[in-house]
Design brief:
By secondary structure, this protein is an alpha/beta fold. Helices cover about 30% and strands about 20% of the residues. It is built from 17 helices and 23 strands. A seven-stranded parallel beta sheet has the order 8-15-16-17-18-19-20. Strands 3-2-7-21-22-23 form a six-stranded mixed beta sheet, with helices on one face. A six-stranded mixed beta sheet has the order 9-10-11-12-14-13. The longest helix has 17 residues, at about 200-215. Its EC number is 3.5.-.-.
């Protein structure tokens, strides 16, 4: 049997059950057919076989991002980047430039601002945004994706005024009784939905997202949701038309009215696992609390930075148990966005309740983020076989804010070492566009626990490079019931591979951040090449 593609002279990180490292791997069509020594693999060479000499570089299973928002990432690309601005003033100038090319009355959108990184040390206000335009509605979304600021025109169009009551699970910020334009949690989600993108913009954004993710070596994405059933339709259309190249495991939830979305899924008769190797329905998902960096995460004890605040809840325990309990009973995998320790505890209790009413083996219920997970919750999570989906890249971008807002709780925030010690399989997600989608960045953050200024944040939770790689590959496949299909380099599995520009296992930790993706192979085809490869 001749191979279609051989990779030789490399560091083949198989991520098999004993984490074998081999020299070479053979691919035929879209499957891996052999892993072994150069001699063994070269014996599979045929007349039309392409051979890539790795010269010591690493080959890994294609990265699986276990929690990312493809639509949000892609549509952000169409707006103004506030993440790279240094101040509100700079953000305003960028928005003014965008206004020059935006037809009158159409939305101007920005994303990624972080008041903690801006010179003014505050959120923008509607009066700031009114300087850009009072004819265009404007929305600027904070980096967490849970908070935004809008101008006066946006408030007017949405019918929001000083006497408007706060929505359940959200807040309109007011100063001296006047709306500032700052919208928190469900108030933001409602406005974002009101300012929705067109179908054409969404499809273009998904295509941009897919291309960027291929550059980062990502071959599978657990898409963590958008707004309503239209988002699922957009994903399906983009996958079937190959505008999205990656394999997609779609979490069935919505950033707006997540219990309502789950109920629609139940009424439709579908459930987790419907689909094929390219597009599959994942778990039913709801929101429990807010964001880690807002901060709006629901914590047991008040914030270190504000003894009067402990975050926002979207659902009561009874509502959570009811929504996800029904989904579990109907055969769904279930999950929830849970950041603060109180929210994580609530999800654990929801899983416990569901299993007590309807026992099920190998349910693989998840907790998205599982931000603050102290020892007492780790024990419960282990007992119930729950899979956490942490985001170590948050430590790099938001770590110093965590120290300010949560104090010593950073020592069990995204506790990867503890998950490993307790034998809890965890799959890493980027939560992009909240942070970069780059898996190498996520691996570095998991291994070093360093903030962007070089400060160590909860260093007791560092893990090894090998553990981080497994969390980005095999564990991601396990979290979607697909470990027999992908996630490791073994004969019979799909030929989803990534070639790096160096050896990731022998590279000094201080140089890990310099590692880049050179090739992304998806379904046995090279979908991204950083440079022209020397094929012999």
């Amino acid at each position: 049997m001749s191979a279609t593609m051989l990779f030789i002279n490399g560091e083949v990180v198989t991520v098999d059950s004993v984490f074998s490292v081999m020299e070479a791997v053979a691919v035929k069509d879209n499957k891996i057919i052999a892993v072994g020594t150069n001699e063994e693999i070269l014996a599979l060479k045929g007349e039309d076989t392409d051979i890539i000499d790795l010269a010591g570089r690493s080959v890994l299973p294609g990265f699986i991002d276990a929690h990312a928002h493809l639509e949000l990432y892609g549509t952000n690309r169409l707006g103004v980047n506030g993440k790279t601005a240094d101040s509100i003033s700079e953000l305003i100038e960028r928005l003014k430039e965008k206004a020059k090319t935006t037809p009158e009355g159409e939305w101007i959108r920005g994303w990624g601002y972080n008041q903690n990184h801006y010179a003014e040390g505050r959120h923008p206000t509607r009066w700031d945004l009114d300087e850009v335009s009072t004819e265009h509605p404007i929305i600027v979304v904070r980096t967490c994706g849970h908070i935004s600021c809008v101008n006066s025109k946006a408030l007017e169009l949405a019918g929001i005024h000083s006497r408007t009551e706060d929505p359940p699970g959200g807040k309109y910020e007011r100063k001296a009784g006047e709306l500032t334009g700052l919208l928190l949690e469900s108030a933001h989600m409602n406005m974002f939905l009101f300012a929705n993108y067109s179908e054409e913009e969404v499809m273009h954004g998904l295509e941009l997202a897919s291309k960027d993710f291929l550059v980062k070596g990502i071959t599978s994405v657990h898409d963590a949701g958008g707004y309503g059933p239209d988002h699922i339709r957009s994903l399906l259309n983009a996958v079937s038309s190959k505008r999205i190249k990656q394999r997609v495991y779609a979490l069935y939830g919505s950033l707006h009215d997540s219990p309502g979305m789950v109920e629609m899924g139940l009424q439709s008769g579908i459930r987790t696992g419907l689909g094929d190797e390219w597009m599959k329905i994942g778990p039913a998902k709801v929101f429990i609390d807010g964001s880690s960096s807002g901060p709006t995460a629901k914590t047991r004890d008040p914030y270190t930075s504000d003894p009067k605040d402990s975050g926002i809840l979207y659902l009561t325990q009874e509502e959570l148990n009811m929504s996800l309990g029904k989904a579990h009973q109907a055969g769904w995998q279930i999950t929830a966005h849970a950041i603060g320790d109180e929210a994580v505890h609530m999800m654990i209790e929801a899983v416990r309740s569901a299993l007590e009413h309807e026992p099920r083996q190998d349910h693989r219920h998840r907790i998205e983020h599982s931000g603050m997970t102290p020892p007492d919750l780790l024990v419960k999570m282990k007992d119930l076989n729950i899979i956490p989906i942490p985001n170590p890249a948050f430590i790099y971008e938001f770590g110093e804010g965590y120290v300010r807002d949560y104090g010593e709780r950073v020592n069990h925030t995204f506790p990867l070492w503890s998950f490993s010690e307790y034998g809890i399989p965890f799959a890493i997600g980027s939560d992009s566009p909240i942070t970069t989608a780059d898996p190498i960045h996520g691996i570095v953050s998991a291994v070093t626990r360093m903030s962007n200024s070089g400060k160590e944040i909860g260093i007791g939770q560092r893990i090894t490079v090998q553990e981080a790689i497994k969390a980005y590959t095999w564990n991601g496949a396990y979290a979607s019931f697909e470990e027999n299909l992908k996630g490791s380099i073994e004969p019979g599995k799909l030929a989803d591979l990534v070639v790096l520009n160096d050896s990731i296992l022998t590279c000094d930790h201080s140089k890990l951040r310099d590692i880049n993706v050179e090739l992304t192979i998806l379904d046995g085809k090279i979908e991204y090449a950083a440079k022209k490869e020397g094929v012999i």
